[in-house]
Amino acid sequence: MLSSDQVVLCACHGRIADRLPLLEICRFLKAMAPDIEVVVEDDLCQRDMLRHLVEEGGSRLRVVAACSRLRPSLYFWQGVGGLPLNPYATRIVDLLEEVAALYDEGEAVERVKLLLWSQMKRASEFKGISQHNLTLRVSPPDDKVTRREFLTAALPRYEVIPCIEPSKCMGGDKCRLCLDRCPLQAISVEGDVLTIDASVCSGCGVCVAVCPRQAVSYPTFSFEELDKEMEALLATEGISLEPRIIALTCRTCLPTPGDGEGDRLRYPSNILPLEIPCLAMASPWLMLRAFDMGAQGLALICGEDKCRSGLGGIVWRDNIRFIQAILGCWGIEAERIRLFEATDSNQLDIGRELSQFDREIAGLGPTPLRAVDHTLVAIEGLRLPALIKEMDKMLARSTEGAISTGTVPFGKVTLDATRCTGCGLCAQNCPTDALRIASSDDRVEFQLLFLHGSCVACGACVNVCPEGCLGLERILELDKIGAGALELFHDVIVKCRRCGEPVAPKSMIDRLRSRLRGAGKRLGDQLELCPACKAGALSSRAARISSGTGVTVASMDSAACAGAGRERTQ
Protein backbone atom coordinates (compact mmCIF):
# COMPACT_ATOMS: atom_id res chain seq x y z
CA MET A 1 0.00 0.00 0.00
CA LEU A 2 1.19 3.53 -0.76
CA SER A 3 1.52 6.05 2.04
CA SER A 4 -1.04 8.32 0.35
CA ASP A 5 -3.74 5.63 0.08
CA GLN A 6 -7.01 6.21 1.87
CA VAL A 7 -9.64 3.87 3.33
CA VAL A 8 -13.06 5.28 4.25
CA LEU A 9 -15.63 3.64 6.54
CA CYS A 10 -19.24 4.83 6.46
CA ALA A 11 -21.23 4.96 9.70
CA CYS A 12 -24.44 4.78 7.64
CA HIS A 13 -26.62 6.71 10.13
CA GLY A 14 -25.75 4.24 12.85
CA ARG A 15 -26.86 1.17 10.91
CA ILE A 16 -23.20 0.20 10.61
CA ALA A 17 -21.63 2.13 13.49
CA ASP A 18 -24.10 0.69 16.03
CA ARG A 19 -23.22 -2.88 15.05
CA LEU A 20 -19.49 -2.64 14.41
CA PRO A 21 -16.72 -0.97 16.47
CA LEU A 22 -15.37 1.16 13.65
CA LEU A 23 -12.50 2.59 15.70
CA GLU A 24 -11.25 -0.91 16.51
CA ILE A 25 -11.40 -1.78 12.83
CA CYS A 26 -9.48 1.40 12.01
CA ARG A 27 -6.76 0.46 14.49
CA PHE A 28 -6.47 -3.01 12.97
CA LEU A 29 -6.04 -1.62 9.45
CA LYS A 30 -3.47 0.92 10.64
CA ALA A 31 -1.55 -1.86 12.38
CA MET A 32 -1.51 -3.89 9.17
CA ALA A 33 -0.51 -0.89 7.00
CA PRO A 34 0.77 2.00 9.19
CA ASP A 35 1.25 4.45 6.31
CA ILE A 36 -2.32 4.52 5.03
CA GLU A 37 -5.05 6.93 6.11
CA VAL A 38 -8.22 5.43 7.61
CA VAL A 39 -11.21 7.75 8.23
CA VAL A 40 -14.84 7.37 9.28
CA GLU A 41 -17.53 9.35 7.42
CA ASP A 42 -21.32 9.24 7.18
CA ASP A 43 -23.99 9.39 4.46
CA LEU A 44 -21.61 8.39 1.69
CA CYS A 45 -24.47 7.28 -0.52
CA GLN A 46 -25.63 10.91 -0.71
CA ARG A 47 -24.33 12.64 -3.83
CA ASP A 48 -22.95 15.73 -2.05
CA MET A 49 -21.10 13.64 0.54
CA LEU A 50 -19.67 11.40 -2.14
CA ARG A 51 -18.54 14.39 -4.19
CA HIS A 52 -16.85 15.88 -1.13
CA LEU A 53 -15.16 12.57 -0.37
CA VAL A 54 -13.86 12.23 -3.92
CA GLU A 55 -12.67 15.84 -4.05
CA GLU A 56 -10.76 15.30 -0.82
CA GLY A 57 -9.40 11.83 -1.53
CA GLY A 58 -9.34 11.71 -5.32
CA SER A 59 -7.00 9.12 -6.71
CA ARG A 60 -5.86 8.21 -3.18
CA LEU A 61 -9.17 6.51 -2.43
CA ARG A 62 -8.59 2.76 -2.41
CA VAL A 63 -11.33 1.15 -0.29
CA VAL A 64 -14.77 2.41 0.70
CA ALA A 65 -16.72 0.40 3.26
CA ALA A 66 -20.38 1.36 3.10
CA CYS A 67 -23.31 -0.22 1.27
CA SER A 68 -24.03 -1.67 -2.18
CA ARG A 69 -25.21 1.71 -3.50
CA LEU A 70 -21.59 2.65 -3.94
CA ARG A 71 -20.84 0.08 -6.61
CA PRO A 72 -18.22 1.71 -8.83
CA SER A 73 -19.66 0.50 -12.13
CA LEU A 74 -23.08 2.07 -11.43
CA TYR A 75 -22.58 5.04 -9.18
CA PHE A 76 -19.02 6.37 -9.26
CA TRP A 77 -18.62 6.24 -13.02
CA GLN A 78 -21.98 7.79 -13.90
CA GLY A 79 -22.64 10.04 -10.93
CA VAL A 80 -19.26 11.61 -10.28
CA GLY A 81 -18.05 12.34 -13.79
CA GLY A 82 -15.14 14.76 -14.09
CA LEU A 83 -13.82 14.13 -10.59
CA PRO A 84 -10.31 12.73 -9.98
CA LEU A 85 -11.40 9.18 -9.25
CA ASN A 86 -10.69 5.96 -11.10
CA PRO A 87 -13.66 3.76 -10.17
CA TYR A 88 -11.78 0.61 -11.12
CA ALA A 89 -8.98 1.39 -8.67
CA THR A 90 -11.44 1.76 -5.76
CA ARG A 91 -12.77 -1.33 -4.01
CA ILE A 92 -16.19 -1.46 -2.33
CA VAL A 93 -17.03 -3.52 0.75
CA ASP A 94 -20.74 -3.77 1.61
CA LEU A 95 -20.67 -3.42 5.40
CA LEU A 96 -24.44 -3.04 5.56
CA GLU A 97 -24.80 -6.54 4.12
CA GLU A 98 -22.29 -7.86 6.66
CA VAL A 99 -24.08 -6.42 9.69
CA ALA A 100 -27.38 -7.82 8.40
CA ALA A 101 -25.98 -11.34 8.71
CA LEU A 102 -26.54 -13.25 11.93
CA TYR A 103 -22.95 -13.30 13.17
CA ASP A 104 -22.09 -12.75 16.78
CA GLU A 105 -20.18 -9.54 17.47
CA GLY A 106 -16.73 -11.11 17.63
CA GLU A 107 -17.19 -13.05 14.40
CA ALA A 108 -18.60 -10.02 12.59
CA VAL A 109 -15.68 -7.81 13.59
CA GLU A 110 -13.03 -10.33 12.56
CA ARG A 111 -14.78 -11.05 9.28
CA VAL A 112 -15.02 -7.35 8.41
CA LYS A 113 -11.36 -6.86 9.27
CA LEU A 114 -10.40 -9.59 6.81
CA LEU A 115 -12.72 -8.32 4.08
CA LEU A 116 -11.35 -4.79 4.33
CA TRP A 117 -7.73 -5.87 4.56
CA SER A 118 -8.14 -8.17 1.55
CA GLN A 119 -9.57 -5.34 -0.58
CA MET A 120 -6.72 -3.08 0.48
CA LYS A 121 -4.22 -5.72 -0.64
CA ARG A 122 -6.10 -6.32 -3.87
CA ALA A 123 -6.19 -2.59 -4.64
CA SER A 124 -2.45 -2.35 -4.03
CA GLU A 125 -1.85 -4.64 -7.04
CA PHE A 126 -4.01 -2.61 -9.44
CA LYS A 127 -1.71 -1.47 -12.27
CA GLY A 128 -4.09 0.78 -14.15
CA ILE A 129 -6.36 0.20 -17.08
CA SER A 130 -6.13 0.88 -20.81
CA GLN A 131 -8.81 1.71 -23.34
CA HIS A 132 -8.43 -1.81 -24.75
CA ASN A 133 -9.75 -3.18 -21.45
CA LEU A 134 -13.02 -1.22 -21.58
CA THR A 135 -16.16 -1.91 -23.54
CA LEU A 136 -19.47 -0.08 -23.43
CA ARG A 137 -22.48 -2.24 -22.62
CA VAL A 138 -26.16 -1.40 -22.93
CA SER A 139 -27.88 -4.42 -21.47
CA PRO A 140 -31.40 -4.53 -20.03
CA PRO A 141 -31.84 -6.86 -17.08
CA ASP A 142 -32.38 -10.50 -17.96
CA ASP A 143 -34.45 -11.14 -14.87
CA LYS A 144 -36.22 -9.33 -12.08
CA VAL A 145 -34.32 -6.54 -10.34
CA THR A 146 -34.83 -4.72 -7.08
CA ARG A 147 -36.75 -1.44 -6.95
CA ARG A 148 -33.50 0.37 -6.23
CA GLU A 149 -31.80 -1.11 -9.29
CA PHE A 150 -34.69 -0.61 -11.71
CA LEU A 151 -33.80 2.92 -12.90
CA THR A 152 -30.14 2.15 -13.54
CA ALA A 153 -30.28 -1.46 -14.70
CA ALA A 154 -30.54 -0.62 -18.41
CA LEU A 155 -28.16 2.38 -18.48
CA PRO A 156 -25.03 2.16 -20.63
CA ARG A 157 -21.93 1.38 -18.61
CA TYR A 158 -18.32 0.49 -19.09
CA GLU A 159 -17.18 -3.03 -18.32
CA VAL A 160 -13.65 -4.28 -17.92
CA ILE A 161 -12.61 -7.11 -20.25
CA PRO A 162 -9.30 -8.83 -20.98
CA CYS A 163 -6.98 -7.73 -23.77
CA ILE A 164 -3.88 -9.35 -25.27
CA GLU A 165 -0.52 -7.62 -24.89
CA PRO A 166 1.33 -8.15 -28.21
CA SER A 167 4.76 -7.69 -26.61
CA LYS A 168 4.20 -10.79 -24.45
CA CYS A 169 2.11 -12.90 -26.82
CA MET A 170 3.88 -15.52 -28.94
CA GLY A 171 1.42 -14.95 -31.76
CA GLY A 172 -1.10 -17.07 -33.56
CA ASP A 173 1.49 -18.99 -35.58
CA LYS A 174 2.96 -20.66 -32.48
CA CYS A 175 0.32 -20.43 -29.74
CA ARG A 176 -3.46 -20.57 -30.10
CA LEU A 177 -4.39 -21.73 -26.61
CA CYS A 178 -6.59 -18.73 -25.82
CA LEU A 179 -8.21 -18.78 -29.26
CA ASP A 180 -9.04 -22.48 -29.03
CA ARG A 181 -10.43 -22.23 -25.49
CA CYS A 182 -12.55 -19.07 -25.81
CA PRO A 183 -16.18 -20.29 -25.44
CA LEU A 184 -17.63 -17.35 -27.40
CA GLN A 185 -15.01 -17.29 -30.18
CA ALA A 186 -14.23 -13.70 -29.24
CA ILE A 187 -10.53 -14.09 -30.13
CA SER A 188 -9.35 -13.83 -33.71
CA VAL A 189 -5.99 -13.96 -35.44
CA GLU A 190 -4.92 -11.73 -38.29
CA GLY A 191 -1.50 -12.46 -39.65
CA ASP A 192 0.31 -13.46 -36.49
CA VAL A 193 -1.55 -11.10 -34.11
CA LEU A 194 -4.25 -12.30 -31.70
CA THR A 195 -6.93 -9.82 -30.63
CA ILE A 196 -10.09 -9.93 -28.49
CA ASP A 197 -13.34 -8.61 -29.96
CA ALA A 198 -14.76 -6.40 -27.20
CA SER A 199 -18.27 -6.62 -28.66
CA VAL A 200 -18.30 -10.40 -28.24
CA CYS A 201 -16.16 -10.96 -25.12
CA SER A 202 -18.11 -11.71 -21.93
CA GLY A 203 -15.09 -11.18 -19.67
CA CYS A 204 -15.11 -14.77 -18.40
CA GLY A 205 -11.29 -14.80 -18.11
CA VAL A 206 -10.65 -18.27 -19.50
CA CYS A 207 -8.00 -16.72 -21.78
CA VAL A 208 -6.19 -15.43 -18.68
CA ALA A 209 -6.25 -18.88 -17.13
CA VAL A 210 -4.81 -20.74 -20.15
CA CYS A 211 -2.18 -18.26 -21.40
CA PRO A 212 1.29 -19.69 -20.65
CA ARG A 213 3.06 -16.31 -20.98
CA GLN A 214 0.80 -14.05 -18.88
CA ALA A 215 0.14 -12.13 -22.09
CA VAL A 216 -3.55 -11.46 -21.34
CA SER A 217 -4.14 -8.32 -19.28
CA TYR A 218 -7.27 -8.26 -17.11
CA PRO A 219 -7.24 -5.27 -14.72
CA THR A 220 -9.31 -5.73 -11.53
CA PHE A 221 -9.10 -9.52 -12.06
CA SER A 222 -5.41 -10.14 -12.62
CA PHE A 223 -3.95 -13.17 -10.87
CA GLU A 224 -1.69 -10.81 -8.93
CA GLU A 225 -4.74 -8.99 -7.52
CA LEU A 226 -6.57 -12.23 -6.73
CA ASP A 227 -3.45 -13.67 -5.13
CA LYS A 228 -3.04 -10.71 -2.79
CA GLU A 229 -6.72 -10.75 -1.84
CA MET A 230 -6.58 -14.46 -1.05
CA GLU A 231 -3.43 -14.00 1.01
CA ALA A 232 -5.14 -11.31 3.10
CA LEU A 233 -8.32 -13.34 3.59
CA LEU A 234 -6.16 -16.10 5.06
CA ALA A 235 -4.15 -13.80 7.33
CA THR A 236 -3.74 -15.19 10.84
CA GLU A 237 -2.39 -12.17 12.73
CA GLY A 238 -4.98 -11.17 15.33
CA ILE A 239 -7.74 -13.23 13.68
CA SER A 240 -9.19 -16.41 15.17
CA LEU A 241 -11.88 -17.33 12.61
CA GLU A 242 -11.35 -21.02 11.89
CA PRO A 243 -11.42 -23.15 9.89
CA ARG A 244 -10.69 -20.55 7.22
CA ILE A 245 -12.49 -21.40 3.96
CA ILE A 246 -12.27 -19.54 0.65
CA ALA A 247 -15.36 -19.29 -1.57
CA LEU A 248 -14.67 -18.56 -5.25
CA THR A 249 -17.87 -16.87 -6.41
CA CYS A 250 -19.02 -16.05 -9.94
CA ARG A 251 -19.68 -12.33 -10.38
CA THR A 252 -22.13 -12.62 -13.25
CA CYS A 253 -24.21 -15.77 -12.86
CA LEU A 254 -25.16 -15.82 -9.19
CA PRO A 255 -28.85 -15.01 -8.65
CA THR A 256 -29.64 -11.36 -7.88
CA PRO A 257 -31.01 -10.93 -4.35
CA GLY A 258 -34.60 -9.82 -4.15
CA ASP A 259 -35.96 -6.97 -2.08
CA GLY A 260 -36.46 -9.18 0.93
CA GLU A 261 -33.75 -9.97 3.43
CA GLY A 262 -34.62 -13.63 3.80
CA ASP A 263 -33.64 -14.86 0.33
CA ARG A 264 -30.03 -13.67 0.27
CA LEU A 265 -27.11 -16.07 0.20
CA ARG A 266 -25.57 -16.03 3.67
CA TYR A 267 -22.05 -17.27 4.34
CA PRO A 268 -20.87 -18.74 7.62
CA SER A 269 -18.55 -16.20 9.23
CA ASN A 270 -15.39 -18.11 8.38
CA ILE A 271 -16.28 -18.75 4.70
CA LEU A 272 -14.85 -15.73 2.90
CA PRO A 273 -15.88 -14.90 -0.69
CA LEU A 274 -13.37 -14.08 -3.42
CA GLU A 275 -15.20 -12.78 -6.46
CA ILE A 276 -14.10 -13.73 -9.97
CA PRO A 277 -15.87 -12.93 -13.26
CA CYS A 278 -16.61 -16.58 -14.03
CA LEU A 279 -15.57 -19.95 -12.64
CA ALA A 280 -13.65 -20.32 -15.91
CA MET A 281 -10.99 -18.30 -14.06
CA ALA A 282 -10.95 -20.84 -11.22
CA SER A 283 -7.89 -22.42 -12.76
CA PRO A 284 -6.11 -25.36 -11.14
CA TRP A 285 -3.41 -22.88 -10.09
CA LEU A 286 -5.88 -20.61 -8.29
CA MET A 287 -7.56 -23.52 -6.50
CA LEU A 288 -4.28 -25.09 -5.45
CA ARG A 289 -2.95 -21.70 -4.40
CA ALA A 290 -5.75 -21.38 -1.83
CA PHE A 291 -4.53 -24.52 -0.05
CA ASP A 292 -0.91 -23.42 -0.42
CA MET A 293 -1.77 -20.24 1.51
CA GLY A 294 -3.43 -22.18 4.29
CA ALA A 295 -7.10 -22.48 3.34
CA GLN A 296 -8.73 -25.44 5.06
CA GLY A 297 -11.49 -25.72 2.49
CA LEU A 298 -12.50 -24.34 -0.90
CA ALA A 299 -16.03 -23.72 -2.12
CA LEU A 300 -16.86 -22.83 -5.72
CA ILE A 301 -20.22 -21.10 -6.08
CA CYS A 302 -21.96 -20.38 -9.37
CA GLY A 303 -25.46 -19.87 -10.71
CA GLU A 304 -27.00 -22.96 -12.23
CA ASP A 305 -27.44 -22.67 -16.02
CA LYS A 306 -26.72 -18.92 -15.97
CA CYS A 307 -23.14 -18.80 -17.23
CA ARG A 308 -22.87 -15.94 -19.74
CA SER A 309 -20.05 -17.74 -21.48
CA GLY A 310 -22.05 -20.91 -22.07
CA LEU A 311 -19.82 -22.97 -19.82
CA GLY A 312 -21.23 -25.07 -17.02
CA GLY A 313 -20.83 -27.26 -13.99
CA ILE A 314 -19.17 -30.14 -15.83
CA VAL A 315 -16.14 -27.90 -16.56
CA TRP A 316 -15.78 -26.85 -12.94
CA ARG A 317 -16.27 -30.42 -11.69
CA ASP A 318 -13.52 -31.76 -13.95
CA ASN A 319 -11.09 -29.12 -12.67
CA ILE A 320 -12.09 -29.92 -9.08
CA ARG A 321 -11.52 -33.64 -9.62
CA PHE A 322 -8.01 -32.94 -10.87
CA ILE A 323 -7.11 -30.84 -7.81
CA GLN A 324 -8.66 -33.44 -5.50
CA ALA A 325 -6.41 -36.08 -7.06
CA ILE A 326 -3.30 -33.97 -6.45
CA LEU A 327 -4.27 -33.26 -2.85
CA GLY A 328 -4.94 -36.97 -2.37
CA CYS A 329 -1.34 -37.72 -3.36
CA TRP A 330 -0.27 -35.46 -0.49
CA GLY A 331 -2.64 -37.07 1.98
CA ILE A 332 -5.08 -34.14 1.96
CA GLU A 333 -8.78 -35.04 1.86
CA ALA A 334 -10.71 -34.60 -1.40
CA GLU A 335 -13.77 -33.47 0.61
CA ARG A 336 -12.12 -30.12 1.21
CA ILE A 337 -13.31 -28.87 -2.23
CA ARG A 338 -16.95 -28.65 -3.21
CA LEU A 339 -19.08 -27.06 -5.95
CA PHE A 340 -22.33 -25.26 -5.05
CA GLU A 341 -24.83 -24.30 -7.76
CA ALA A 342 -27.27 -21.60 -6.69
CA THR A 343 -30.66 -20.74 -8.20
CA ASP A 344 -33.16 -17.97 -7.57
CA SER A 345 -35.05 -20.24 -5.19
CA ASN A 346 -32.40 -22.25 -3.36
CA GLN A 347 -30.15 -19.60 -1.82
CA LEU A 348 -31.29 -20.45 1.68
CA ASP A 349 -30.54 -24.10 0.95
CA ILE A 350 -27.08 -23.18 -0.34
CA GLY A 351 -26.50 -21.24 2.87
CA ARG A 352 -27.36 -24.34 4.90
CA GLU A 353 -25.15 -26.49 2.68
CA LEU A 354 -22.26 -24.08 3.23
CA SER A 355 -22.80 -24.35 6.99
CA GLN A 356 -22.69 -28.12 6.72
CA PHE A 357 -19.54 -27.87 4.61
CA ASP A 358 -18.02 -25.67 7.31
CA ARG A 359 -18.75 -28.28 9.99
CA GLU A 360 -17.28 -31.06 7.85
CA ILE A 361 -14.07 -29.10 7.26
CA ALA A 362 -13.78 -28.39 10.99
CA GLY A 363 -14.07 -32.11 11.66
CA LEU A 364 -11.17 -32.87 9.33
CA GLY A 365 -8.74 -30.71 11.27
CA PRO A 366 -6.03 -28.49 9.74
CA THR A 367 -4.08 -29.47 6.64
CA PRO A 368 -0.29 -29.82 6.93
CA LEU A 369 0.00 -26.74 4.69
CA ARG A 370 -1.53 -24.52 7.36
CA ALA A 371 1.65 -24.73 9.41
CA VAL A 372 4.13 -23.80 6.64
CA ASP A 373 4.87 -20.61 4.71
CA HIS A 374 3.25 -20.33 1.32
CA THR A 375 5.36 -20.32 -1.81
CA LEU A 376 6.40 -17.30 -3.82
CA VAL A 377 4.47 -16.70 -7.03
CA ALA A 378 6.39 -17.47 -10.20
CA ILE A 379 6.79 -14.17 -12.04
CA GLU A 380 7.48 -15.71 -15.43
CA GLY A 381 6.77 -19.03 -17.07
CA LEU A 382 4.15 -21.60 -16.14
CA ARG A 383 2.88 -21.06 -12.62
CA LEU A 384 1.13 -24.37 -11.98
CA PRO A 385 4.12 -26.72 -12.25
CA ALA A 386 6.22 -24.31 -10.17
CA LEU A 387 3.52 -24.28 -7.47
CA ILE A 388 3.18 -28.08 -7.45
CA LYS A 389 6.93 -28.49 -7.17
CA GLU A 390 7.23 -26.05 -4.23
CA MET A 391 4.23 -27.47 -2.37
CA ASP A 392 5.64 -30.97 -2.73
CA LYS A 393 8.94 -29.71 -1.34
CA MET A 394 7.25 -28.00 1.61
CA LEU A 395 5.40 -31.18 2.49
CA ALA A 396 8.73 -33.03 2.35
CA ARG A 397 7.18 -35.94 0.47
CA SER A 398 8.69 -37.81 -2.41
CA THR A 399 5.50 -38.13 -4.39
CA GLU A 400 5.16 -40.63 -7.19
CA GLY A 401 2.20 -41.72 -9.19
CA ALA A 402 0.21 -40.57 -12.19
CA ILE A 403 -2.97 -38.49 -12.27
CA SER A 404 -5.39 -38.78 -15.16
CA THR A 405 -8.57 -37.79 -13.29
CA GLY A 406 -10.63 -34.82 -14.46
CA THR A 407 -9.30 -32.27 -16.93
CA VAL A 408 -5.56 -32.69 -16.53
CA PRO A 409 -3.68 -29.57 -17.74
CA PHE A 410 -0.52 -31.60 -18.36
CA GLY A 411 0.50 -33.94 -21.15
CA LYS A 412 2.99 -36.70 -21.79
CA VAL A 413 4.47 -36.91 -25.27
CA THR A 414 5.68 -40.22 -26.67
CA LEU A 415 7.69 -40.74 -29.84
CA ASP A 416 8.27 -43.64 -32.24
CA ALA A 417 12.00 -43.24 -32.88
CA THR A 418 11.89 -45.60 -35.86
CA ARG A 419 9.78 -43.10 -37.79
CA CYS A 420 11.20 -39.77 -36.55
CA THR A 421 13.54 -37.86 -38.88
CA GLY A 422 14.48 -35.15 -36.40
CA CYS A 423 12.93 -32.37 -38.48
CA GLY A 424 12.23 -30.34 -35.32
CA LEU A 425 8.81 -29.04 -36.39
CA CYS A 426 7.27 -30.26 -33.13
CA ALA A 427 9.68 -28.16 -31.05
CA GLN A 428 9.28 -25.14 -33.32
CA ASN A 429 5.50 -25.22 -32.82
CA CYS A 430 5.40 -26.00 -29.08
CA PRO A 431 3.91 -22.91 -27.35
CA THR A 432 5.41 -23.72 -23.94
CA ASP A 433 8.83 -25.03 -25.00
CA ALA A 434 8.01 -28.43 -23.53
CA LEU A 435 9.73 -29.88 -26.62
CA ARG A 436 13.22 -28.56 -27.27
CA ILE A 437 16.05 -29.22 -29.73
CA ALA A 438 19.50 -29.58 -28.21
CA SER A 439 22.85 -30.29 -29.84
CA SER A 440 26.35 -30.94 -28.58
CA ASP A 441 28.90 -28.16 -28.46
CA ASP A 442 30.64 -29.51 -31.54
CA ARG A 443 27.25 -29.90 -33.27
CA VAL A 444 27.83 -33.58 -33.86
CA GLU A 445 24.80 -34.88 -31.95
CA PHE A 446 21.10 -33.98 -32.10
CA GLN A 447 18.54 -34.42 -29.27
CA LEU A 448 14.81 -33.89 -28.99
CA LEU A 449 14.02 -33.25 -25.30
CA PHE A 450 10.69 -33.26 -23.49
CA LEU A 451 9.92 -31.38 -20.27
CA HIS A 452 6.77 -32.85 -18.72
CA GLY A 453 6.11 -29.93 -16.37
CA SER A 454 5.87 -27.52 -19.30
CA CYS A 455 3.47 -29.57 -21.42
CA VAL A 456 -0.13 -28.32 -21.38
CA ALA A 457 -1.45 -31.09 -23.65
CA CYS A 458 -2.41 -28.67 -26.44
CA GLY A 459 -1.57 -31.23 -29.15
CA ALA A 460 0.22 -28.77 -31.45
CA CYS A 461 3.20 -31.11 -31.79
CA VAL A 462 1.06 -34.08 -32.78
CA ASN A 463 -0.85 -32.04 -35.35
CA VAL A 464 2.26 -30.70 -37.07
CA CYS A 465 4.39 -33.88 -37.13
CA PRO A 466 4.84 -34.87 -40.82
CA GLU A 467 5.77 -38.47 -39.96
CA GLY A 468 2.90 -39.05 -37.52
CA CYS A 469 5.33 -40.45 -34.98
CA LEU A 470 4.17 -38.49 -31.90
CA GLY A 471 1.56 -39.50 -29.35
CA LEU A 472 0.02 -37.46 -26.52
CA GLU A 473 -1.66 -38.52 -23.28
CA ARG A 474 -3.34 -36.18 -20.79
CA ILE A 475 -1.61 -37.18 -17.57
CA LEU A 476 0.41 -35.71 -14.71
CA GLU A 477 3.35 -37.70 -13.39
CA LEU A 478 4.17 -35.92 -10.15
CA ASP A 479 7.72 -37.20 -9.87
CA LYS A 480 8.52 -35.66 -13.27
CA ILE A 481 7.57 -32.12 -12.18
CA GLY A 482 10.79 -30.22 -11.65
CA ALA A 483 12.86 -33.14 -12.91
CA GLY A 484 15.23 -32.91 -15.84
CA ALA A 485 14.19 -33.15 -19.46
CA LEU A 486 13.54 -36.57 -20.97
CA GLU A 487 15.32 -37.49 -24.18
CA LEU A 488 12.78 -38.59 -26.80
CA PHE A 489 15.09 -38.83 -29.78
CA HIS A 490 18.84 -38.90 -30.35
CA ASP A 491 20.79 -38.84 -33.58
CA VAL A 492 24.05 -37.72 -35.12
CA ILE A 493 24.30 -34.69 -37.35
CA VAL A 494 25.52 -35.27 -40.88
CA LYS A 495 28.05 -32.61 -41.80
CA CYS A 496 28.67 -31.20 -45.24
CA ARG A 497 31.37 -33.27 -46.89
CA ARG A 498 32.80 -30.12 -48.48
CA CYS A 499 32.77 -27.39 -45.83
CA GLY A 500 31.96 -29.33 -42.65
CA GLU A 501 28.84 -27.30 -41.74
CA PRO A 502 25.89 -29.22 -40.18
CA VAL A 503 23.37 -30.42 -42.76
CA ALA A 504 20.64 -32.49 -41.05
CA PRO A 505 20.14 -35.44 -38.68
CA LYS A 506 21.28 -38.73 -40.15
CA SER A 507 17.73 -40.10 -39.87
CA MET A 508 16.46 -37.42 -42.19
CA ILE A 509 19.20 -38.05 -44.76
CA ASP A 510 18.55 -41.79 -44.61
CA ARG A 511 14.79 -41.27 -44.98
CA LEU A 512 15.26 -39.04 -48.04
CA ARG A 513 17.69 -41.52 -49.62
CA SER A 514 15.26 -44.40 -48.98
CA ARG A 515 12.34 -42.55 -50.54
CA LEU A 516 14.34 -41.57 -53.59
CA ARG A 517 15.47 -45.16 -54.09
CA GLY A 518 11.91 -46.37 -53.69
CA ALA A 519 10.86 -43.98 -56.42
CA GLY A 520 13.55 -45.38 -58.73
CA LYS A 521 15.50 -42.12 -58.83
CA ARG A 522 19.23 -41.86 -59.44
CA LEU A 523 21.07 -40.54 -56.41
CA GLY A 524 23.73 -37.94 -56.60
CA ASP A 525 25.90 -36.51 -53.89
CA GLN A 526 23.57 -33.63 -53.03
CA LEU A 527 22.04 -35.02 -49.81
CA GLU A 528 25.24 -34.57 -47.83
CA LEU A 529 25.90 -31.00 -48.90
CA CYS A 530 24.87 -27.88 -46.99
CA PRO A 531 22.61 -25.43 -48.88
CA ALA A 532 25.52 -23.12 -49.79
CA CYS A 533 27.71 -25.91 -51.17
CA LYS A 534 24.70 -27.48 -52.88
CA ALA A 535 23.97 -24.19 -54.65
CA GLY A 536 27.62 -23.87 -55.60
CA ALA A 537 27.69 -27.36 -57.04
CA LEU A 538 24.60 -26.72 -59.13
CA SER A 539 26.02 -23.43 -60.39
CA SER A 540 29.27 -25.15 -61.42
CA ARG A 541 27.37 -27.81 -63.34
CA ALA A 542 25.25 -25.20 -65.05
CA ALA A 543 28.38 -23.30 -66.06
CA ARG A 544 29.98 -26.44 -67.51
CA ILE A 545 26.82 -27.25 -69.44
CA SER A 546 26.57 -23.77 -70.91
CA SER A 547 30.23 -23.95 -72.02
CA GLY A 548 29.69 -27.36 -73.59
CA THR A 549 32.22 -29.09 -71.33
CA GLY A 550 29.77 -30.79 -68.99
CA VAL A 551 26.77 -33.03 -69.13
CA THR A 552 23.53 -31.98 -70.75
CA VAL A 553 20.73 -30.41 -68.79
CA ALA A 554 18.58 -33.49 -69.31
CA SER A 555 21.16 -35.71 -67.65
CA MET A 556 21.44 -33.67 -64.45
CA ASP A 557 20.64 -35.53 -61.30
CA SER A 558 16.97 -34.72 -60.83
CA ALA A 559 16.83 -36.92 -57.74
CA ALA A 560 19.48 -34.82 -56.05
CA CYS A 561 17.59 -31.64 -56.88
CA ALA A 562 14.43 -33.10 -55.39
CA GLY A 563 16.31 -34.08 -52.26
CA ALA A 564 17.78 -30.61 -51.93
CA GLY A 565 14.36 -29.05 -52.24
CA ARG A 566 12.97 -31.35 -49.56
CA GLU A 567 15.86 -30.47 -47.24
CA ARG A 568 15.25 -26.76 -47.66
CA THR A 569 11.58 -27.30 -46.85
CA GLN A 570 12.47 -29.20 -43.66
Task: Briefly say what this structure is.
With 570 residues, the chain is an alpha/beta fold. The protein has 18 helices and 22 strands. β17 and β18 (445-450) form a beta hairpin.
Give the termini distance in whole angstroms: 54 Å
Helix/strand-derived class? alpha/beta
Task: Show unreliable segments.
Answer: 72-80, 258-262, 550-570
Tally of domains? 5
Strand count, sense and closure of the main sheet? 4 strands, parallel
Strand-residue fraction?
Answer: 15-25%
Please report the number of helical segments.
Answer: 18
Helix fraction by DSSP (H/I, runs of at least 4):
25-40%
> What's the number of extended β-strand segments?
22
Q: Provide the residue-averaged pLDDT.
A: 83
Spatial arrangement of strands, main beta sheet: 2-1-3-4
Shape: elongated
Q: From the alpha-carbon coordinates, what is the Rg to the nearest angstrom?
A: 30 Å
Written description of the protein model:
- By secondary structure, the chain is of the alpha/beta class.
- It has 5 domains: 1-124, Rossmann fold; 131-217, 2-Layer Sandwich (Alpha-Beta Plaits), CATH 3.30.70; 237-377 and 386-393, no CATH class; 410-492, Alpha-Beta Plaits; 513-569.
- It is 33% helix and 18% strand.
- It is built from 18 helices and 22 strands.
- It has helices spanning 22-32, 47-57, 72-79, 95-100, 105-124, 147-150, 177-181, 206-210, 223-233, 284-292, 313-329, 347-364, 383-394, 425-428, 460-464, 506-518, 531-547, 558-569; strands at residues 6-10, 37-41, 61-66, 91-94, 134-137, 157-160, 163-164, 187-190, 193-196, 216-217, 245-250, 271-276, 297-303, 337-342, 402-403, 411-415, 435-439, 445-450, 470-474, 476-477, 486-495, 502-505.
- A 4-stranded parallel sheet has the order 2-1-3-4.
- Helix 1 crosses helix 5.
- The longest helix has 20 residues, at 105-124.
- The protein is elongated, with a radius of gyration of 30 Å.
- Mean pLDDT is 83; it is low at 72-80, 258-262 and 550-570.
